Amino acid sequence: MEKKYILTEPLVASIAEAKYQTTISWRNGILLSDEPVSLGGQDLGPDPYTLLLSSLASCTLATLRMYIDRKEWKVPEITVKANLFQRIEVGKLVTTIERAIFFNQLMGAEQKDRLLKIAQSCPISKILKNEVIVLDDVF
Fold first, then answer.
1. Is the separation of the CB atoms in 86 and 94 below 8 Å?
2. Mean of the pLDDT values across residues 21-39?
3. How many CB atoms lie within 10 A of CB 43?
4. Average pLDDT over residues 80-103
5. For all residues of the chain together, what is the average pLDDT?
6. I need a labelling partner for 30 at 20 to 30 A (CA). Which of 4, 48, 50, 114 fits?
7. Confidence of residue 120 (pLDDT cuts 50, 70, 90)
8. pTM of the model
9. Considering only the top CATH level, what class is 47-133?
């Protein structure tokens, strides 16, 4: 099976001696990730949970904006709030992500329902809602 990667170049992340501080290199720059002070980091960047939720929020917003623009609807601002919690169910870790979408204007129920369907079809939503396989190698 041929692999068709989403990214043209892989994301590269590294850590040195600064506790929990990671440098993430991507096609256009560098992003710093860190843990909060309460967990021993210096809180100099978003933690891994925040990065995961940011992926979902930004994908949701971009997908909604593309659809709204294509429909030529007047929706000047969209906001997404996201958080997650975890619990153990039948000996298995279950993660629940809550995503709230705000259109900051009045709109009909039919339009809101359609936009919710569009948000649920964003690529990151699809990844998170389906099976994910992590292939690991150590070099």
1. yes
2. 94
3. 14
4. 96
5. 95
6. 4
7. very high
8. 0.90
9. alpha beta
Place of tokens 């900051």: 104
Beta bridge partner(s), residue 23: 14, 32
> What is the structure's pLDDT at 101?
97
Pairing of strands 79-89, 92-102: antiparallel
Closest CA to 99 of 43, 67, 46, 59: 59
- Dist CA 84 CA 67 (whole Å): 26
Contact 116, 57 (CB under 8 A): no
Domain spans of the chain, in order of start: 1-45, 47-133
For 107-113, the CB contacts below 8 A with 24+ separation are 107/75, 111/73
Render the burial of 109-132: b for 16+ CB within 10 Å, e for the rest.
Answer: eeeeeebeebbeebebbeebeeee
pLDDT of 104 > 90? The answer is no
